[in-house]
Design a protein that fits this description.
Distance between the termini of chain B: 24 Å
Helix content of chain C: 25-40%
Strand content of chain B: 25-35%
Number of strands of chain B: 12
Strand order of the largest sheet of chain B: 6-7-8-3-9-10-12-11
Number of helices of chain B: 12
Number of helices of chain C: 11
Chains: A mainly alpha, B alpha/beta, C alpha/beta
Order of helices and strands of chain B: EEEHEEHEHHHHHEHEHEEHHHEE
Largest sheet of chain C: 8 strands, mixed
Strand content of chain C: 15-25%
Radius of gyration of chain B: 21 Å
Largest sheet of chain B: 8 strands, mixed
Largest interface: B-C, 46 and 45 residues
Order of helices and strands of chain C: EEEHEEHEHHHEHEHEEHHHHEE
Structural class of chain B: alpha/beta
Oligomer: heterotrimer
Distance between the termini of chain C: 29 Å
Structural class of chain C: alpha/beta
């Protein structure tokens, strides 16, 4: 009935990672390792749980690959996104995958492994550069949108009464609009103002350009890019306000919240130190799933012609431009579509697995199996001796 | 002194395991006891000792991940003895509810909040084919409410469960359990959710009904007071095993098992002045990896070497007084 | 010997609104005008059936719930008027222990954090926090092995001990014990009750012990109060109340307890008061004395006029017209 738990290579890697991380923190905080034995054990069991879930591992792999290219993509791209080979050599125009094109001005041959777009740009390079765009946008939207939602949800759920009514009615107003339509409307309205704003703040402008891995020349296009981000933040927080409020309402019924009040702790301390850590699990799962959703929505908006403008490399935009040449230049649709799909799939697999890992039951069951196996191994060892 | 009692249930080596995510929970191991016709038999013990599981296993009421692993439950029906554990799902359903009825702890959960109580009782009877139609069922429901002494039954029958108090609901549940004049009534903590004054009323009612209908009552409880008041014979359970069986007098006046002794000393008696309670040290063991030998040995003040090694068997020390302990 | 009061409750009221679809339909009078005092170093037991308002009383006294009306005087200060630092002082001096050990500890905090949090918040200076926490754990029957563990690694009884250690860390003077052992098994309950008694003797705490279990209250308390439907019906020394209950409700309550002794049980059962019915709803309590519809001795006056709490015997108060001298 009971399966044993045999440690594989990944589990040993997990052991190593946890110990390494623990030792690392220990350098800065004295006795951290000793005080957090239980915590490290939980981490270890979480990693074990992950190791036992092939979809989870695939998810982790896809996400890690995405993050890697999100960070290093523009640098790894063989050709810059804003170089148009078409002007050098007409044959680069919509060159199919596998074509070699000679570029007289560079005196080199460009190998187009995945084909080229209508400017003759290497699709592989565009996809690599586009990874950065997606990566930055998804992070910015989550990092700014989610905490706002969590904060409002906590306040509404904890204080209840009139505060709750006010916050939640506003949230409802946002939720009542279909998110995509609202985002479309906002990204149509916002660009000019944002452009004016960003142009008048030089430091901010160069920072944003650096963030997206863009050339100075694209400064004029930032307004539209930022408008999509802002639009998505605005449609993103209400969902978090709602789930956080729900969890807060349940969680604050727990007596430890009342115990904290009896000690005299302030509402803010109780909200952030006591309630939040206990409801963050499901929210984390949501966030992970939403990374995929943000990327999909951003690609969708770009596909509709909003957001990133050429020549900025953007997966959705590549597909949008590619539609004019479909089915002749199929690669302009198939490859970016595949990439978006894999990334979204990765985040979703990871999110679903996270749900299992964060469930204490899964961990207890693994803990039991590990202990049992260990006991059996010890017994065998004794017998051998 | 005792006339030869006639058993109605003979439980032998009943074993139930739960296959959970954390491992096999040995909820009850080789539990054996007899229940005699017409008596009140109490199964006593603390949380997780297996008393509820035992009572449910009698009619195969064990749901996944639990499984009855072994044992026999001989039921002496009018037609002769049958092993309840060998019956098919259909056959056991015939017995459950008709000959062996249950009352559970939480009256709120036993009634459907969406239907009037009268309708619920009537419908159950229609389903069990005890009445022809709903109309007859409602008439029977009315007589049931009268039987369990609910005031103003004619209007109460139209009440929804939320319009009734906890005690009233438990009366309805008891009434429903008794609809088919069962031979055995198994009451699992019937008064735990109720206040003391209401508890007293319900216990009185159960005693009265038991006398009126000559039912055998199996009472499952953790409350030593309720046991003292109700039971003729008592089985004390600890960690999935029977520790001691005897008449109420034997158990309370001459407890043999160290656990029974400890349990009795740990209950504050409201009628006596006690300076200090004797507590049992330690905690109830985890039933995934129960202690070897006697399961009580880690907490037992008299534990010897043998207690760690050998599982004690039930031995008859005096007439009808059994104990599973190496001290005897 | 009469000890000085540490806490006085005066005319405390707490009404909870019952919300209808649009308007408030009425009020649950959970606590309706009760007054009593708790003396330094004693255990005051508060008993009653579910819904009688005993738990609400305990929380209102600590101002975890704001009362509708009334005063609670703690060491000469009306705590309903305290603000800022004075409130912080009160939070340190008065603590509460809850019924449910499974939800009263934050699952994300280690035992060390659970215990140190109040200490740090109140700015209590501790030389060696680890040493300090270990000492506390030892005083409630745990040890240093448990220091950095999480609540899920403990049993119900052990969790109650951790909760107890958290209280002790602040060195309070007054502790509300809200059914601290109701969720525990008898063998564990006895352990916790003994520990509570021991630390009371050691540190001189004053307890308000709320429970529905009369056996436990009898074991723990010096004086006790009996509540019925938001009202205090009897207050007096526990031994006296158990021996000679005055209020018919107290008599009913005491005669209804099942006693863990078959012979005594038979005896008591024969004498048991036969009272039909159950406590009515606290939304629309009966007029006059709230117990009159169930009271076998009810007179006319009981239906009309509410009996005040009167001293029937020395230090023994009862709210019942049977004992009215008038």
């Amino acid at each position: 009935m009971q399966e044993e738990y045999k440690k594989g290579i990944l589990d040993r890697l997990a052991d190593f990672l946890v110990i390494a991380l623990g030792s690392f923190i220990n350098i800065f905080k004295r006795d951290w390792k000793k005080k957090n034995k239980s915590k490290m054990e939980e981490w270890r069991l979480m990693l074990y749980a992950l190791n036992r879930s092939p979809p989870g591992l695939i998810g982790v792999f896809l996400v890690l690959v995405f993050i890697f290219f999100g960070v290093f993509g523009p640098r790894l791209a063989p050709w810059p996104y804003n170089y148009f080979p078409f002007f050098d050599n007409g044959t680069a125009y919509l060159a199919p995958p596998g074509t070699q094109v000679y570029l007289p001005s560079h005196e080199t041959i460009m190998s187009l492994h995945l084909g080229a777009d209508h400017y003759g740009r290497d699709l592989l390079s565009l996809l690599l550069a586009g990874a950065r765009t997606s990566f930055v946008i998804s992070i910015v939207v989550i990092v700014l949108g989610v905490p706002l939602g969590i904060l409002l949800g906590l306040i509404a759920g904890y204080y209840g009464g009139k505060t709750d009514e006010l916050v939640m009615r506003i949230t409802d107003m946002f939720l009542a609009f279909p998110a995509l339509i609202l985002a479309i409307a906002l990204s149509a309205v916002l660009p000019n103002r944002l452009q004016a704003f960003i142009s008048s703040h030089a430091h901010l402008q160069s920072f944003v350009l650096w963030l997206f891995g863009l050339h100075m020349r694209e400064a004029g296009n930032l307004g539209r890019l930022l408008s999509v981000i802002l639009a998505m933040i605005i449609v993103w927080w209400p969902a978090y306000a709602r789930i956080t409020r729900g969890s807060t309402l349940t969680e604050k019924e727990n007596l430890y919240v009342e115990a904290a009040r009896a000690i005299g702790l302030s509402s803010w301390t109780i909200m952030f130190k006591h309630i939040l850590p206990n409801i963050i699990g499901p929210i984390l799962v949501y966030i992970t799933l939403d990374f995929g959703s943000v990327i999909l929505m951003e690609a969708g908006l770009s596909f509709l012609g909003l957001g990133a403008t050429p020549p900025i490399a953007d997966w959705g935009r590549i597909v949008y431009d590619g539609t004019q040449f479909f089915p002749k230049a199929w690669w302009l649709i198939i490859y970016p579509g595949l990439v978006v799909m894999l990334v979204a799939l990765g985040w979703n697999l990871l999110g679903d697995t996270l749900r299992d890992i964060l469930d204490p039951k899964t961990r207890r069951s693994i803990e039991f199996k590990v202990k049992k196996t260990k006991k059996m191994e010890e017994k065998e060892g004794e017998e051998n001796a | 002194m005792r006339r030869m009692p006639e058993p109605i249930l003979e439980v032998r080596d009943l074993t139930v395991h739960f296959y959970t995510y954390a491992g096999i929970v040995k909820a009850i191991e080789r539990v054996s006891f007899d229940v005699y016709k017409g008596e009140t038999f109490a199964l006593v013990g603390e949380t997780g000792c297996g008393k509820s599981v035992t009572s449910r296993a009698l009619t195969q009421l064990i749901e996944s991940p639990g499984r009855i692993v072994g044992g026999k439950v001989i039921y002496h029906s009018d037609k002769g003895p049958i092993d309840l554990l060998k019956l098919s799902e259909e056959e056991i359903r015939e017995i459950r509810g008709k000959e062996i009825a249950y009352i559970f702890q939480d009256p709120h959960a036993s009634l459907d909040p969406l239907y009037q109580v009268g309708y619920q009782i009537a419908e159950a009877m229609v389903v069990h084919n005890t009445v022809k139609d709903l109309k007859e069922g409602l008439q029977r429901a009315l007589s049931i409410l009268k039987r369990v002494l609910i005031p103003d039954p004619e209007s109460r029958i139209k009440n929804y469960p939320h319009e009734m108090s906890g005690g009233m609901k438990q009366r309805v549940v008891i009434g429903t359990g008794l609809t088919n004049n069962p031979k055995v009534l198994i009451a699992d903590e019937p008064t735990t959710a109720l206040d003391v004054t209401v508890q007293a009323q319900i216990l009185d009612l159960m005693n009265k009904l038991k006398r009126d209908y000559n039912t055998t009552l199996i009472l499952i409880t953790h409350n030593m007071g309720v046991v003292a008041e109700m039971a003729d014979r008592i089985a004390v359970m600890y960690a999935g095993k029977i520790a001691e069986i005897g008449t109420a007098e034997q158990i309370f006046k001459n407890p043999l098992h160290p656990y029974t002794q400890g349990l009795l000393k740990a209950v504050p008696n409201p009628m006596k002045r006690i300076e200090r309670l004797d507590a049992i040290p330690g905690t109830v063991p985890n039933l995934i990896t129960p202690p070897s030998g006697c399961r009580f040995h880690p907490r037992c003040p008299f534990a010897k070497d043998i207690c760690k090694q050998k599982v004690p068997e039930l031995k008859e020390i005096e007439d009808g007084h059994f104990v599973a302990c190496h001290l005897y | 010997m009469k000890l000085e009061p540490i806490l006085q409750v005066r005319n405390l009221k707490k009404y909870f609104p019952v919300k209808g679809l649009f308007f408030t339909k009425g009020h649950v009078k959970a606590v309706d005008d009760i007054s009593f005092e708790i003396r330094r170093g004693e255990t005051f037991g508060l008993v009653g059936e579910s819904g009688c308002g005993k738990t609400t009383t305990g929380r209102t006294i600590l101002r975890l719930i704001e009362p509708t009306d009334g005063e609670v005087i703690f060491q000469g200060k009306n705590i309903m008027e305290l603000k800022g630092d004075e409130m912080k002082w009160f939070r340190r001096k008065a603590q509460i222990m809850f019924q449910d050990p499974y939800s009263s500890l934050n699952p994300r905090q280690t035992v060390f954090e659970v215990i140190m949090e109040p200490v740090r918040f109140h700015g209590i200076h501790v030389d060696d926090p680890e040493e300090f926490v270990i000492k506390l754990l030892e005083s409630v029957g745990l040890n240093e092995m448990h220091l950095y563990r999480y609540p899920h690694e403990f049993s119900g009884g052990q969790r109650q001990r951790i909760a107890l250690a958290r209280l002790l860390a602040l060195r309070p003077e007054f502790i509300v014990l809200d059914e601290p052992t109701s969720a525990l098994d008898v063998s564990v309950q006895a352990n916790i009750l003994n520990t509570l008694k021991d630390i009371q003797r050691e540190f001189g705490f004053t307890y308000l012990f709320i429970s529905h279990d009369l056996g436990v209250v009898k074991y723990m308390s010096h004086r006790m109060g009996v509540m019925y439907l938001g009202k205090l019906v009897e207050v007096g020394p526990s031994d006296e109340i158990f021996e000679k209950p005055l209020h018919p409700y107290t008599q009913l309550l005491l005669s209804a307890i099942p006693v863990p002794d078959p012979e005594l049980a038979k005896e008591l059962k024969a004498k048991r008061m036969k009272v039909e019915g159950e406590p009515p709803s606290p939304i629309n309590p009966p007029s006059g004395c709230r117990f009159h519809p169930r009271c076998p001795f009810a007179k006319d006056i009981c239906k009309k006029q509410e009996p005040p709490l009167m001293e029937a015997e020395k230090d023994h108060y009862v709210a019942c017209w049977l004992y009215s001298k008038a």
